[in-house]
Structures are given as C-alpha cells and as structure tokens.
Please model this.
Amino acid sequence: MKVLVVGSGGREHILCWKLAQSQGVEKVFCAPGNAGIAADAECVDIAVTDLNSLADFAEKNQIGLTMVGPEVPLCEGIVDVFKQRKLRIFGPDKQAAQLEGSKIFAKDFMRKYNIPTAGSEVFTEAAPAIAYVRKVFADGAKGLVVKADGLAAGKGVIVAATAEEAIQGVNQCFDGEFGAAGKRVLMEECLFGEEASIFALTDGTTIIPMASAQDHKRIGDGDSGPNTGGMGAYSPAPVVDDKVMAIFKNEILGNFLKGLQAEGLYYRGVVFVGLMVTEQGPKVLEFNVRFGDPETQAVLLRLENNLAEVLGKVADAKLNEVELRWTPGATVCVVMASGGYPGNYNKGFEISGFAEAEAAGTKVFHAGTAFKNGKIVNVGGRVLGVTAKGATIREAIDTVYKGVKKISWQDAYFRSDIGHRALKRGL
Ligand SMILES: Nc1ncnc2c1ncn2[C@@H]1O[C@H](COP(=O)(O)OP(=O)(O)O)[C@@H](O)[C@H]1O
Ligand SMILES: [Mg+2]
Model:
C-alpha cells in the first residue's frame, strides 16, 4: 500500500517515519513535507489546504490511505472531499472537525453530553462581554479565560488574572486581531491544576485512549515567557494516574462517543483531549481533532503496533480489532527552535550534528527545515524535535539532552527543563 501524509511539521515526520517502517507499506508520500521527512517519504509540493489537488494526487497515485496532520485541512473538509471520491482517509469530516474549529460548538457538545469542563458564557459583542468581566471579578474570581471561537493558531486564548487583562483580551477579539475567529467569544471559568494531553482513537463505534503526555507551552525554563506551539513533551504524564485515567475513559471518552453517535457526527480519527487535572478531577480544556505537536513525537515513539494497520482500521471503522501496545518506560521530546521564536527570527543557518545526535541514542524529527545548496537549514520557528526513550523519565531526559547538545546552528534555542513536573514527582 502507498500512503500519503498531509503536513510539514515534526508530527508529520514521526508519522512518515513510523509509516515507512510499517509492514505492508511500500511507499510514503508527504505533502508538502520538509528536509527531514524527505529521508522517509517522497515530498510532493501540494499545499495542505489544496484539497482537490491532494485528492487528485491520491487518486492518480493509488494511495491506499491518507493521514492528515494539521487541523486546517480537516476543518476545511478534506475528509468530505476524499470520502466523496471514495478515497480512504483518516480523520473527522468537516462537521465533526468543529469540535476543534469552534470552541463554542465544542463547549455546547460537552455540556449536552455531560463531559466535565469549565463553566462558560458566549458573547458576540464587546460591551456585554466587558460588563460580564467586571461582574465576575467584582464577585471575587481569581481569573477568567477569554477564548476566540475559531481557529487562531494557538493565539486566541487569553488566560486573564485581572479584569484589565480580560478586557484587553475581549477587545483583541472584537477588534479583529484573530479575524473571523474572534467574532464570537467564549468566556470560561479559570481552572487551576496541572495540564495533560491524552489522544484517543475513534471510529465512531469504539474509542481507545493512547498514552498520556504533557506539553511545555512557554518559551522559557520554569514555564516563563510567551506561549509557543510547544517546546517539548514527555509521555506518560504521571499526573494522569489510574484514577484520572478511569474518569477520562468513563466520563470523558465514554460521553464523547455517545455524543458523536447521538449527533450523527462522522469521526474516524484521533481526538486530542487537553485536560486540566483539578482538585475536582480532570476537566476538558479543549478538543483537537488531530494529533498534537510535539506530544505525538513522544507518544508514537512508544507505540509498538504497525501504525499503518492501526490508522487503516480506524478509517475502515474496525477499531474494535486493535489493541495498542506501548513500550514501557518513558519518552521525551525536546524542541529546538530558531533564536527569537516565537517572535522574529533569522532563517537559513546550516544545522550540524544530526548523525552525532542519533549516535547518542536520540531520534531527530524535523519541523522547520529545508535544503539549501545541499545543506539542511532552519526555515521555521520550531526546527527540530529531538526525542529519546528511557526506562524512566529521568533516563529519557538524560539521553535526549545528550543528543540536543550535539546539534547546533546559529542562535539555536531550546528549553533545558523539559519534564520538570515529572521529576518533581520524584520519578
Ligand atoms: N478554563 C481554563 N482555565 C485555565 N486555563 C485555561 C483554560 N482554558 C485554557 N487554558 C489555558 O490556555 C491554554 C490554551 O487553551 P486551549 O483551550 O488549549 O486553546 P488553544 O490550544 O486552541 O489555544 C491551555 O493549554 C491552558 O493552559
Ligand atoms: Mg491547546
């Protein structure tokens, strides 16, 4: 079988790498891919949002399975286009993808199907939203979360500690900073606790949790500085203990599946559940309708199954035939970024040390890389995801940083404390 992966980041690199190793896969294509993906797949120059060209490519090249990395093509209906043309694809259709594409749609769904989540209100105009902010803080709230309804590339959520910050967030939304995504605003009760991410596979009939993970969103050590796409991840996340996992399976996944069925939503893909583990138990912060980056690098490195077979069973609605197997121990992924990210940064610097990093026991997944005169250079904010396994998180962390230290380019930046929460738990 030939497979097509849509996307160009670290998540897509591990997908291509694992698919290339899957028995039964003769060839992997990636649209558009990157310099590292080119080692595992043939990169084809088609944009992730050019849905018809992607379907044409799949048809012409007899692609047996298409796997979509990012949310934008899913929210634009890539699954609908492929389904209509009888092409096998992994993912939710456009309507179901609103579980990520509209935070208000997701919140209504959670409320309707008793999925634990923060309380919230919806606003479509600034004045009543601001009045609400003042009331909530006057009543003694310790925080309020302002969320633009639509896709905002991770920038549409403002966690406000004061009324002023919340009002600023409201104004950003209604002043059009997030475009159409900010026309409607969700204001959420602020939850306190530790965050975790858990992926689950579903075909609409069966739902299976994958291993848990934890991301590190802030740019700086000790979780300081501005938010990023994610600076590192590890799996499993010890905050997801047996008790949290049991609630996750029963109240969150169980009700999620009931909701899909009751609403008649077509969902044959992965759901990424962002959780806040509070004193009252886990609550859902958000759903994403695809794998997360960099959690995927940490989680899939532990997956022992034939990935193509697993994804194919999901696409064929035969997930009940799958049993996931995980390598014991832990994995850690450290993201190496261009200096200056998430602000402005310089591109085009030659990256060295790949072979040495892999000799140190790591696997290096590429995100923002490209070839320039035969050399691999940085072209994006997040550039590499150096990933390693270990018998314990401590061991995985030690190995991963040995690899990270072998890699260099001008102004390269990485966090040096990935996994710190797990270490604090004495693991
Ligand atoms: N209700 C909430 N209480 C506290 N923090 C929140 C809440 N909702 C979101 N956050 C914080 O904001 C981050 C981004 O919110 P999320 O809903 O995941 O949106 P997105 O990933 O689309 O930006 C979360 O990872 C979490 O740190
Ligand atoms: Mg999120």
Remarks:
- The CA atoms of residues 24 and 251 lie 37 Å apart.
- The chain has a mean pLDDT of 96.
